[in-house]
Amino acid sequence: MKKFIFAIFVLGLLFFSLQNVLAQKDYVCAVYFTGVGCPHCAETDPIVLEELPREYANFVVIEYEIYQQTENAPLIYRYNEEYNSGLGIPLIIFNKEQSLSGSFSIPQEARETIEGFQLNKCPLIDGSSVDFSDLNLVSLSGFPKIWYQGKILIKVGPGGDSELLKELLVKDDLNEVLKDIEFQEIKPFKIPLSGKYVGFDNGISIGNWIFQWNGPALEVLPSEGETATEETPLAESDLKLTMAKVLSLAAIDAVNPCALAVLTLMLIAILTYNPTKKRNILLAGLAFIVSVFVMYLIYGLIIIKSFQLVQVLTAVRLWLYKILGAGAVILGCLKLKDFFQAKAVCKISPKVDKVIARITSPKGAFAVGAFVTIFLLPCTIGPYIICGGILCPLGLLKALPWLLFYNLIFVLPMLAVVLIIYLGLSRVENISSWQVRNIRYLNLISGLIVLGLGIAMILGLV
Question: Model-level pTM greater than 0.85?
Answer without folding.
Answer: no
